[in-house]
Amino acid sequence: MPRFNESYLNLNQSYLFAEIRRRTKVFIDAHPDVRLIDLGVGDVTQPLPPAVVRAIHEAADDMARRETFRGYGPYVGYEFLRAEIAAHDFGARGVKIAVDEVFVSDGGKSDSANLQEIFAPDAVIALLDPVYPVYADSNVVAGRTGPADESGRYAGIVYLPCTADNSFQPALPDRHVDLIYLCYPNNPTGAVVTRDALRRWVDYARAEDAVILYDAAYEAYVVDTDVPHSIYEIDGARQVAIECRSFSKNAGFTGMRLAYTVVPKELRGRAADGKSMSLNALWARRTAIKSNGPPYIIQKAAAAVYTPDGQKQVRALIDFYMQNARIIGAGLAAAGFTVYGGRNAPYIWVRTPPSVSSWDFFDRVLGEAHVVGAPGSGFGPSGEGYFRLTAFGSRRETEEAIERIKTRL
Predict the structure, then answer these.
(1) Which residues on adjacent β-strands are paired with residue 322?
(2) 244 Cβ partners below 8 Å, 6+ apart?
(3) N or C: which end of the chain has fewer CB within 10 A?
(4) Cβ distance 372 to 24 under 8 Å?
């Protein structure tokens, strides 16, 4: 029989959200009469914007007519959508992005996991800690990390702790790294980065010939004016940064699956013999090998987000979820919890009680309040002692969940 990829054996336990679902199912099976409220997995609950739904119907009609039927689309996405992305998400903020620097995909999770494939197996990576687990896990199975130690840290990863002790602002790496994963607004802490702080990261990457993989999936939630929406608002970032964005959490596309990645043409990598290569060209080649692009109907739906009606309706969705965030933050603070985030991001990051681990607190909230959250340690070793709640629930269930936690814990 063939050998399998033994790097999979180095993964820490099961994937965080799969473990949350497993524990939740065990509880439901044992308590079938209990009504749970799920604020753990960051899935949206409000319906798609009407402009998007209208575009889906129109695109479905296109597929029913010979003259407008579409088969295989461009691997990198239809130009009608890529042009809207370049114009609205970047051009409107004074950032120039070319259409052929935009690559449309089936989700931010896919891009976050797949980008590492265009870099060398011995590339040294740095991660915010805690952060979205896919960044670490994709590099583990690529063979870059080796096994984890007792604390859950991988020797092959440079960790950049983000805790209350440093105001969730990590220090620059104290050694050379090749790839730096940054996520702002941050999942799970809800922290943001100012322009000055992001400029330091860009300057570091330029000095070290490193590449920043910048996840801006939650940029639509930014309200503070000193917080950039894109890393390309920083001079020099086009030479060192790849940016990922998603339609999931702003326009409610978690079930539709659509995202995109921007790879500037100035960005280059180096071969073993010293020759350089365009990373834009490499990502285009990788995309052509492994993707046929998202469906035409979904891309037409995404293009509707950029219409005047679509923009208003998306803004209303974001405002709805951020009101949930305020309800959660204020309610937990009133109950005596120490709370972070929830201003420029739809996540609320909560200190667990003294001497209570993240998973123990998860079990307590599940068992006593019948509310599902996410243990901080599942996002990285520095997440121990914290707990994440999302603002993506319905208004009624969000209010009820917080009332349960306040009165039962």
Answers:
(1) none
(2) 108, 111, 112, 115, 213, 214, 215, 216, 217, 259, 260, 261, 262
(3) N
(4) yes
Smallest CA-to-CA distance from 349 within 332, 369, 368, 364 is with 332
> Between the CA of residue 214 and those of 5, 181, 328, 353, 372, what are the distances in Å?
28, 6, 28, 32, 29
- What pLDDT shows up at residue 18? 87
For 394-405, write each residue's pLDDT tens digit: 999 999 999 999
Domains defined for the chain, CATH in brackets: 6-47+309-408 (3.90.1150.10), 53-308 (3.40.640.10)
CA–CA dist 152, 382 (Å, integer): 10
**What is the C-alpha separation between 189 and 187, in angstroms, rounded?**
5
Alpha helices in 85-154 (DSSP H): 108-114, 133-141
pTM over 0.85: yes
From CA 308, how far away is CA 129, in angstroms rounded?
38
CA distances from 39 to 47, 159, 333, 339 (A): 17, 27, 17, 15
Q: Give dist(CA 153, CA 63) in Å, integer.
A: 49
The alpha carbon of 64 is separated from its chain's Cα centroid by a whole number of angstroms, namely: 35
Buried residues in 346-371 as b, exposed as e (16+ CB within 10 A): bbbbbbbeeeeebbebbebbbeebbb
Largest separation between any pair of C-alpha atoms in the chain: 66
Determine contact, residues 141/135, Cβ cutoff 8 Å.
no
Which value, to the nearest 10 degrees, does the dihedral of the CA atoms of residues 202, 203, 204, 206 take?
90
